[in-house]
Specification:
Layout: H1 3-19, H2 23-31, E1 36-40, E2 47-49, E3 56-58, H3 61-68, E4 89-101, E5 106-114, E6 126-130, E7 138-142, H4 143-149, E8 156-159, E9 166-173, E10 182-185, H5 191-200, E11 209-215, H6 223-230, E12 234-238, H7 239-243, H8 252-256, H9 268-299, H10 301-309, H11 314-346, H12 348-355, H13 366-392, H14 396-401, H15 412-431, H16 437-463, H17 472-483, H18 485-519, E13 528-533, H19 542-552, E14 555-565, E15 582-585, H20 594-597, H21 607-613, E16 630-632, H22 636-640, H23 646-653, E17 657-659, E18 665-666, E19 669-675, H24 678-682, E20 694-702, E21 714-716, H25 718-724, E22 727-737, H26 743-756, E23 760-764, H27 773-811, H28 816-866, H29 884-905
Parallel strand pairs: 5-10, 7-9, 16-21, 17-20
Antiparallel strand pairs: 1-11, 1-12, 2-3, 4-5, 4-8, 4-11, 6-9, 7-10, 8-9, 13-22, 13-23, 14-16, 14-22, 15-19, 17-21, 18-19, 19-20
Helix pairs in contact: 1-11, 1-13, 9-13, 9-16, 9-18, 9-27, 11-13, 15-16, 15-28, 16-17, 16-18, 16-28, 17-28, 18-27, 18-28, 19-26, 27-28, 27-29, 28-29
């Protein structure tokens, strides 16, 4: 019991320390054997950076940078290679992301070009098997890629859109990114051919990011050299600077912005929460271990009595019992630490895979491990205090004869408990309005729980009044528990602590589940779905996808939808690449929301004006979103989307567009602007300005307000699009289904999509699908195990106390099952009392945290109202929902299971013996 947490904590400490690399190891994994890695910041202005290159900001800060915009094109700095020091040796490292065809379908993969024969790359990668690529047409893959793709060394792999495949010659790993899927090829053999092939097919090309591994010789890339590179808009990771960083006063970034903004670590709040958790964990262990020590002391009372009979006083008795706790704690510390270290060594590959990085080596921190071991020793000592005091108060005669003395209840402890409960509840409620809400709530809840623990002996006594209405065996068990509160109270308190934590988490989790269910917004009408490609470049595969959908899933209706195309059909929707464009709805100026059309946005209005405008129909919030706001379809789409307005259906059949947003329509007309220069359009940053382009005006039917477009703002019939001269490309289908599809049908359509190697998705609206039952079940099982353990310890102690009484029962002819029944009820009574008290105590932290969230959400809502982003009509919904099923399981099943288990493991008959005289 004491060693188990030491095993976990020591293993965690050893693992985390081993995973923390030295500065030399860190920089080698980032830049290999080079002096520095130089990368463009892509801001177009001089920058300041942290010495390790992990963060940077433009000179003057991001606010000034955003207000001033970017430099003109001719003032942009050149590539990083043009800014390197004279005589520097550089190796280009290029990366890009693309989808690669695998045995399962498509996999997002990082493609990389690097000259691995250069000595500057030593340390960047570790070859696992096979060999590095040597010629064009060869690549080496990370072990993670091979695992995820189903491929192997020697097989061929093809990036989507590539004109040829590549042979995998070996497997390697990135020591700092074990889970990264990456393909590596010699320079110029992977990214450039793929870029050409994609552009030739009309798809967007590859966007590579280049960095340079640089060797300058001498003192390396010094801090002054780094600052010179920063002036040219370059970010530098320097070996010399990382190993010997400059003083904070020499870092311009820290003069511009406080260093704390770039620092990461454990905050004061996290430290307080961690200390609270550790403290409560120690309390739980003490409460569980205390009765166990009491069992040992009770079974050894004759030996302790002999010590007293031979001249030993109470001091010696206490010392003996405390020494036992000290020895057990020390053994637990040594054993637990040794097992934890051994487990870390044995499970190193598994731990490295889980964390995602290779250890730099095993790192032992003796002081930290000694502190962890000391925790076990202190816990063992604390757990033995109460049994030691109890044993020392027994008279020599009572210890030798096995009699139990009568001790008056402590009258001070209940008063302390009441004060702690009241103070803890007050602190927790205060925390709901405090800036450090969760921390204060956690502290107050912990104090209140400690108060309930202090009240446990009094509460156990109150439970005893119920015994008069119970049958013989449970009445004996309850009265025995009340009469011997010294052993009952710690076990009940241990159950209380475990159940309180479980109820708190379960209540909080269930409350969030209820809130999320209430806040859920459907994307489509119930029983409908959407098949769509997530990339415009896959438009040629859409017809095959539609046929696969109809084949694998029983559809009642399918509405095929296309998108408008300007330029190359494979361009991304908002791409600024040459040859790309888009179509945008231009709403009449007088029908646009003034909050966002004013020069300074909502800041142009007073709080009351902004609040009033939020209620204006022009500023109504769009409840749904869609990948394409303007689609090309026929009247089947209206049927699938449950639009029953006869006028809309008739208009679409007649070749007239249908609008679902009246802000876009004026005098029965809809304006579509064809943007052929997306770069010029993206350069417009002032509110109210429209992008340049050619307008297409279409007659349109405005659907009634109660007709929901589900994110679609306008539906255009094919004839109307043809009249405007615009082009279209398919992107998916909306569909209605005949009952929810089975898991087999979903797997089949997913398999068809994978087989085609298309990046597409099938979404079916089935309502809110959140489920917290697994979490609640796990919490119930955990609480049940702790409850049974604590109640079992208390039962063992009760049997040690009642051995003489049980023998007397057997002597007077009691049935053998009485012994078993009494044992079961003793265990069940302890479990039931602990569960009842824990359930009541666990509600407080959950309520406190939910009230804290409600206050925070109210502040957020109020801030939105003040800034004009909300009207104030909506009220935040933060319910406190009690998980009655979980509580029912705890209150009924756990005590019942504890009682049955105790009855099963108890012998039904014991040896008869003569009672001690006296």
């Amino acid at each position: 019991m004491l060693a188990l947490p030491i095993v976990g904590v020591s293993a965690a400490d050893f693992t985390l320390r081993s995973a923390q690399l030295s500065p030399e190891q860190q920089v080698t994994r980032r830049i290999g054997a080079a002096d520095a890695r130089v990368t463009a910041a892509n801001l177009g202005v001089p920058i300041y950076q942290k010495p390790d290159g992990s963060s940077y900001a433009p000179v003057g800060g991001f606010k000034d940078y955003m207000d001033g915009g970017s430099r003109p094109k001719e003032d942009q700095p050149g590539p990083p290679s043009s800014a390197l020091p004279p005589g520097a040796q550089a190796v280009k490292d290029s990366t890009a992301y693309a989808k690669v065809r695998t045995t399962h379908g498509l996999l997002d993969t990082q493609l990389r070009e690097l000259d691995t024969n250069s000595p500057l790359t030593a340390g960047l990668i570790t070859v696992d098997r096979g060999r590095l690529p040597e010629t064009a047409g060869e690549v080496v893959a990370t072990t993670a890629f091979l695992k995820n793709s189903g491929l192997y060394v020697g097989s061929s792999v093809t990036p989507r859109g590539a004109s040829s495949s590549y042979k995998i010659t070996g497997a390697y790993e990135l020591p700092d990114e074990l889970s990264s899927s990456q393909l590596l090829a010699p320079p110029g053999t992977l990214l450039t051919p793929l870029d050409k092939a994609l552009q030739a097919s009309g798809a967007p090309g590859v966007h590579a990011e280049d960095s340079y591994l640089v060797e300058v010789g001498g003192d390396g890339f010094t801090w002054n050299t780094v600052k010179a590179a920063n002036a040219k808009g370059l970010v530098v990771v320097s070996r010399a600077v990382t190993l010997d960083p400059p003083a904070d006063s020499e870092v311009p970034l820290y003069q511009q912005q406080p260093k704390a903004e770039f620092s990461s670590g454990i905050s004061t709040v996290e430290t307080a929460i961690l200390a609270t958790v550790v403290g409560l964990a120690m309390l739980e262990i003490c409460l569980l271990a205390g009765p166990a020590f009491a069992v040992g002391a009770r079974r050894s009372r004759r030996q302790l009595g002999l010590v007293g009979a031979n001249g030993g006083d109470r001091r010696h008795i206490r010392s003996i019992v405390l020494s036992g706790g000290l020895v057990i704690g020390a053994v637990a510390a040594v054993t637990g630490t040794a097992i934890g270290l051994a487990l870390t060594v044995a499970l190193r590959p598994v731990l490295e895979e889980y964390i995602g990085i290779r250890f730099g080596g095993f790192v032992l921190r003796p002081l930290e491990l000694a502190g962890i071991a000391l925790l076990a020793v202190v816990t063992g000592l604390l757990a033995a205090i109460v049994p030691a005091v109890t044993a020392s108060r027994q008279t020599v005669l009572a210890s030798l004869t096995g009699r139990r003395g009568v001790r008056r209840a402590n009258r001070v402890l209940p008063v302390i408990g009441l004060v702690a409960v009241g103070g803890g509840a007050a602190i927790a409620l205060y925390g709901t309005a405090s800036e450090m809400g969760p921390t204060v709530v956690a502290g107050g809840s912990a104090l209140a729980e400690l108060g309930v623990v202090a009240l446990t002996p009094l509460l156990v006594g109150m439970f005893g009044r119920l015994g008069r209405w119970l049958p013989l065996s449970p009445r004996l068990a309850l009265r025995d528990a009340v009469r011997n509160r010294g052993r009952t109270a710690p076990a009940v308190a241990a159950v209380l602590a475990a159940v309180a934590g479980t109820v708190a988490v379960a209540t909080y989790q269930h409350s969030q589940e209820v809130q999320h269910r209430a806040e859920y917004r459907a994307d489509l009408p119930g029983g409908t779905g959407l098949l769509q490609t997530t990339e415009n470049s896959a438009h040629k595969e859409v017809p095959a996808l539609r046929e696969a959908l109809s084949k694998q899933i029983p559809l009642t209706q399918r509405a095929d939808v296309d998108r408008l195309v300007v330029g190359k059909p494979g361009c991304d929707s908002y791409s600024s690449e040459p040859g790309c464009g888009r179509v945008q709805i231009i709403a009449p100026k007088e029908q646009r929301c003034p909050l966002f059309d004013a020069p300074n946005g909502p800041a142009s209005f007073t709080r009351e004006q902004a609040k009033e405008l939020r209620r204006d129909w022009r500023c109504a919030e769009n409840r749904h979103g869609a990948q394409h706001e303007v689609v090309v379809a026929d009247e089947k789409l209206l049927s699938v989307l449950a639009v029953t307005d006869p006028g809309s259906v008739a208009a679409l059949k007649a070749g007239q567009a249908v609008s679902f947003d009246k802000r876009n329509v004026k005098d029965g007309k809809l304006v579509l602007r064809v943007i052929t220069d997306p770069q010029a359009a993206d350069g417009i940053v002032k509110p109210g300005e429209d992008p340049p382009g050619e307008d297409k005006v279409l007659p349109v039917h405005q659907a009634p307000d109660n007709a929901e477009g589900w994110g679609i703002e306008a539906v255009l019939p094919a004839a109307a699009v043809k009249a405007t001269g615009l082009s279209t490309a398919p992107f998916g289908s909306y569909f209605a289904i005949d009952g929810p599809p089975s898991s087999e049908q979903k797997q089949k359509i997913a398999g068809e999509i994978d087989r085609m190697g298309v990046d597409a998705s099938v979404r079916i609206e089935a309502g809110y699908q959140g489920d917290d039952s697994l979490v609640l079940l796990a919490l119930t099982v955990f609480a049940g195990l702790v409850t049974i353990g604590a109640a079992g310890i208390a039962t063992g102690l009760a049997q040690a106390d009642a051995e003489a009484d049980l023998k007397t029962l057997a002597a007077v002819g009691a049935a053998p099952r009485v012994r078993r029944t009494l044992s079961g009820f003793q265990c069940g009574v302890v479990a039931l009392m602990g569960v009842i008290l824990g359930s009541a105590a666990g509600i407080l932290p959950a309520v406190g945290l939910r009230l804290t969230e409600e206050r925070q959400l109210q502040r957020l809502y109020q801030s939105g109202i003040d800034m004009g982003y909300a009207s104030g009509d909506e009220v935040p919904y933060v319910p406190v929902a009690v998980p009655w099923e979980t509580l029912g399981g705890l209150l009924v099943l756990v005590p019942l299971g504890a009682a049955l288990l105790a009855a099963l493991v108890t012998r039904s008959n014991g040896a008869l013996a003569r009672r001690a005289a006296g």
